[in-house]
Amino acid sequence: METTQMNLLKRKWLTKWRQRIGYGVSDFACNLIWQVISLYLLYFYTDIMNLNAAAISLMFVVTRFVDGVTDLLVGYLIDHTNTRWGKSRPYFLFGAVPFALFAFLCFNVPDFSNSGKLVYAYVTYLGLSFAYTLVNVPMASILPSLTNDTEERTALSTSRKFFAFLGATIVSSSVLTLVAVFGKGNEQLGFKIVMGMFGVISCLLFFFTFSAVRELPVHGTKNPSFKRVFTSLKQNKPWMIFAVNILFMWTSFFIQSSALVYYFSVVIGSKTLSITVATIMSIVPMFANFFVPILAKLLGKRNLYLLSASIQILGLIVIMFAAKNITLILVGTFISAIGYGVKESIYFSMQADPVDFGVWKTGVNVSGSLSAINGFLGKVAQAISGGVAGALLAWGMYQPGEIRQSGKAIFAIQAMYLYVPMLLIICSIVTMMFYHLDNIYPQIKADLEMKKSLDVK
């Protein structure tokens, strides 16, 4: 009897960890490809394929607008998907191959004329962006249906962010070396081979995610109409607060990221230091993630978010007063990286809870639409950050390529890297102070469990 019980506990433990790892590697699979796209696709198109930089920049802008529409479309499709595998899980199976294939095609440009190459770039990049949406939106929408336990959701989100940071770190530290090794002096060939390898690995990881995760039975109305989705979201106050916070949080992140090279090359006078800082901002959050489940259990999700955001601000303040003191800059970066890593991890865990609130409040499950709108707001934040960053550089009369910049230009870059992000993080903290879902979540969970048991009977 005791042996049987031990075996059951062991099996349960293995199943839980298989799901945690399976869910986590989905973001590794995404980052393995999308980080290459973010870091090197512009360089590949302009410097290797000799396409016009302005034309490619316009392509990126057009794609972001199309992305916003496809996010909402995929969210709506998820809410109306009902299969034996669940609502979100099938997208990992059927989206993996298109994602890997379009990633490879983006770096496999035929020997067309420049106009032909540009058309090819549009088709393949738009295809990749849609395929990315097919596998990325389900990563958020599936979390509420993997478990009803808020602590386990935090553990799953922690696993996801650990593997995301790991994937990003591997890409940033290895891709150019791999391109040189496989290309043997031919960068076009090198990128094609590397992207082919990464595509296969990414595809296999998504297949593993599909096999490792299991969706629980879904509460709430199936196939809700657009009107019911809209009404449900309108009544979901915790999500509305969370949605406002998305704009503050991600605009802060994107503005600071865009200013990294400017700040260290112009203000500090050491472009190479930006590489060290970027490495710290990738590796430290990866390990800070391990403390998130324990801290969330002790403090609650909202309080941990507020604390980690405050720590991030503290790190930026240290950098601000460090001037050109490299040691203090690195200390401030380390502090900021801890806050950022914990904040982002708990943010992804918190995304799932308003879904349960919506089901509890309205009886309608809109996990797909809610996750899609969250993704759409992230893209809006990216667009806002690009506009603000460009406006600040224009206001400061920044001169590209010049070593000496005016005091106004230096202030504009400081604003991009420090002042504006700090202001936005403060706005994020104030916004999340109105988020009280943690207090009533145990009651929501109990009510939904009771409803589930009654439905079974």
TrEMBL record:
One of its GO terms (biological process) is sodium ion transport. Coiled coil: none annotated. GO terms for molecular function: symporter activity. It comes from the Bacteria. It holds the Pfam family MFS_2. Gene3D superfamilies: MFS general substrate transporter like domains (1.20.1250.20). One of its GO terms (cellular component) is plasma membrane. CDD domains: MFS_MelB_like. This is MFS transporter. It comes from Enterococcus faecium. The lineage of its organism: Bacteria, Bacillati, Bacillota, Bacilli, Lactobacillales.
